[in-house]
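Handoff note, outgoing to incoming analyst
You'll be picking up this chain. Sequence as last confirmed:
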Amino acid sequence: MEFSRKKIISKYPWLVERDQPFIISADYDGLICASLLHQQLNWQLAGYYDLTSLWISDTARKYRRDLIWVDLNILPVQGRAIGGHIVSPDRETPPGFETSCNPNILSGLTAKDFRKKFPFSTLIYLLWLHNLRVENSLLARLLVLQADAVWLKFQNYPENVKTWMKMLGDYDWEWLFKRVNTRTFEKRIDGLLYPKLTALGAVSRRGKLKSVNYGFRSLQYQFNPDWDEDVVLALFRLFGNELKWTPPPLPEITRRIEGRRSKVPLHEVKKTGLQDWLKKRKVFSYAIPSPQILNYTTFGEFRRSPLEKKGISHGG
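Most recent structure output, in case you need it:
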């Protein structure tokens, strides 16, 4: 199977529409996607979602039915989204995901196909969709490959990566992943990229994957919009300087809406049936991170948007 940019954009025309309001995952991956989308299409950042809480601006509330959710998988039918998690326990995909541009859904992959799942970041998927090349500098390339620890996935799952490079044809993969398997590349990650991110405060935990040469683990960053605005701005400046992407204005957050995040054994969901289980639990977003587990978030409503809730006023 080979993906066609033309067919995907025809199915999801909002991918190329300008000036769209959008919400991102509250982490490094979401922020670097926000920088690209603002640069490329002048999309307007309207809020953040960390899979438990929603931080929203008045713009997000006003255009709640027109929002695009980036690096996220949300269930409501009106929720246009682009993300790369597995969402199908078997061959059943909920109607809410018809508006989600998810490469795993497009290729028919389920919880039984984890070895074949999409190995790249949402950022790289967007770069491929718009056929954009990254600035020709080492740090720019490292910043891109840092999203979702893609450089480590390239090292640890080479056959699956090669398969997806063929599926997403007509792109300069060779340049993007040049020498990623080498000791020299890993030294650049550990000696150039990681110290810079650490100095900015853009590190919150280490990931599980290890590099093949030195055993370096990925550094990950999830932020809290209530108190991490300075780090967000610092990352936007870094992306602007190195990737030449004009940083998006920060949204003026006016409300925080609390959800409840839980996990459940996947066999329990299958026993009930996915559709019935999602309705019963009033699920807003979910993902299947392993063949045995489903993680989900509920805001206590199934058909009503959580953005309509009063929530907590930002800043008290």
